[in-house]
Write a structure and sequence with these properties.
Oligomer: single chain
Distance between the termini: 31 Å
Largest sheet: 11 strands, mixed
Helix content: 10-25%
Strand content: 25-35%
Length: 853
Amino acid sequence: MRQTAYRLIVADDEAILAQNRGNVWDSKRVTSGLSTHIRYEGEPLMSGQRYYWKVLIWDELDKRTSWSQPASWEMGLLAENAWHAQWISTELKSEQPTWLRTTFNVNRPIKTARLYASALGCYEMYLNNCRVGDSYFTPGWTSYHHFLQYQTYDVTHLLSIGENVLGGIVADGWYRGNVMGHGRNFYGDQLGLIAQLAVTYEDGTQSIFGTDEKWYTTIGPITQADHYNGETYDARLERGFWGQDERIGWEPAVHLQAAEFNLVAQIGEPVRKKREIKPVALLTTPQGETVIDFGQNMVGWVRMAVDEPAGTAVTLTHAEVLDKDGNFYTQNLRAAQQKVTYISKGTAAVYEPRFSFQGFRYVKVEGMSSEKLKLDQFIGIVLYSDLEATGYFECSNSDINQLQKNIVWGQRGNFLDVPTDCPQRDERLGWTGDAQVFAPTACFNMNTAVFFHRWMKSLRADQRADGALPHVSPHVLGDDAFGATGWADAGIIVPWVVYQQYGDRRILAENYRAMQLWVQYMGQQAGENLLWQGDFHFGDWLSNERHDLGTPFGLTETDLIATAYFAYSTHLMGKIAAVFGRDADAEAYQNFSDQIKVAFCNEYLTPNGRLSSNTQTAYCLALAFDLLPEEFVELAVQRLAADIRYRGGHLSTGFLGTPLLCHVLSEHGQTELAYELLLQEAFPGWLYPIKQGATTIWERWDGLKPDGSFQDAGMNSFNHYAYGAIGDWLYRVVAGLSPDESLPGFKQAIIKPRPGGNLRYAKAELETVNGRFRIHWYFKEEDFFIEVVVPANASAKIYFPTSTISGVRESGRPLTQLRGVRETHSRNKQLTAIMGSGSYKFKIIGRFYQPLP
């Protein structure tokens, strides 16, 4: 089934839309098969206005559908003059969170009420003693010097006729809290709040109540709240902060004169509570510590029930692992304390933090009476950006299935408002290299389209005038922390990955100029010989080639890596230019990339086909980025394969080489060797941590060494998603599902399963912007089966593991008799077919089965 045309109508009133009229926009009939990313082209949109829309389509028989059910969206505040509130703060000299409040009267029936709010720090809003919304760590972490998000809440149900109390709590967050290497106050030393409540009455009039000097401030029971160090709550300081008559001890708020921020509406999904985890064991360590095991390395906090005498301090300390003796281990947290303390007021209570998050599996409990301590008093609350789970992968090997679970848990823990490197130690930064290598996997597991859209907005905002992009985004490191190859290339690679997965050209358009500047910067650094040499780069970070070197950079020359990425990113720029029909740009970038490739080979490739860095990563980069002349490709593949076999079937790659390794092998006739790497249970390899009981991806291949000791505590995270980039290969090669570059956003999928490693089946599902694709392949006796579901208005190019069309049946029928088959052909001993929407069950007769290259 295919769409051949559509009509969209938009109205500013539901009643008008119900008459099938679009008084704001009527697209009329548009001949097009596109069903996503249709740009609004109607009348100018108004701040705070809700709009209603619906759609109908014509199918492949030119039959018109009925109108869809109506949907709606609401505009934010579109201009600075739409804000009628002031930034306010407190004159109280305290490092504690600030509580702010006001009262106002509502004297007639209410139709709708919207609260717009933001803060310098992290905030929670309260209306009539009820928490507003269900998001955490708002307004989120962006490049604050360039833009700050605000959030919009529907609070109609919380208002009442008469006096109302509106208040907020503002804590340090990323704004004033500890940031790696800077201590506190990196962005500023004064917390602030801006809030605007717009109440629309049934009679059509409106009142606006905003933050100003008539608000009052105080401090409360939260005496510390820091992302790294944790939270302290003294229940003895509680009082009725949001009651109408509770006004003792409040001081007038002050106007925050220096607060001038570019306020933008929330982009993408906020952080929310996503699930709850019950602990699995209560342990007493050899050192006599009381420790709770939650069975899963997670990110969030612990909710606990407390019933202790007044003044009793119950402290929870969070850690990822126990040492080889079974004792609580926190050295890898570095300076991060990860402690939460609750001081009892003498009555039973249930407590959980609000302005701090921890990365942990184990929790040490101190201060609670042993006779009162029970497992059911504790619940792990998992928080991460509220991204829709879109992908599913499963195969016949339980260890690979656990690997996939660990990859997803690593993404959950580190996709907390920004794509961080780790969620537990005193770092938690948006490292660009980690995000660049993991982005393809991330886009399979979850809908990350807008998540990356926002992160890229911060990345390009922090770009230097000379085009260099920072090591982390938002940028919080030194002035020289820019321009590292493989890291800064995230500015081009991540938008390209997102475009391929979701088909939205906006992320390319918004970042096009920043991409151009980055290529220009690389060209300036390389100079006339087009070899980028001499600058600082992270290299193949944490590669496993030599443990005796004491360096995390690996053996692959950083100059070779830099020049390889220079060629690759320039090549991608040519493709991106072509997307927009910028033919001159496309040709210029492609020619430039070709010249860089020649320079690369002249410098780093010997006449006998050996790279100057004779490492797995060097060959992966050269092959994956298509840097080598055709006559040297097979030699490079053989050298790569030989090195793997020399190491006993083990990899030696780091952050940059690892994501490419299995892809390079499977694309060059070495699929079985790629499976051998995947299934390697001994160190180093993906399954080694699985055998050690890992529930997330580790930062280092040997974070926990075979002898039970730990790697260097200064850099040894047990929740670090970079090596989880293998997930992309699981979806694309093992299951056989990937986007078609010529029809992005899964308008057409590529179905190309490549079984190996004694797997008997694999299956994957993916909810795309064009519908849900499913693939399930399996062996049954000698025959091979592929079950495929293609959604309406989409297609799939299927590669069959046979070269003979007579060897394929679909539910018993010859392939050529299928309705919906648009074309079939056999080329290079490879049978392919383009299928329209539908559910298919293909059988490849055993004697005709031939593994795909």
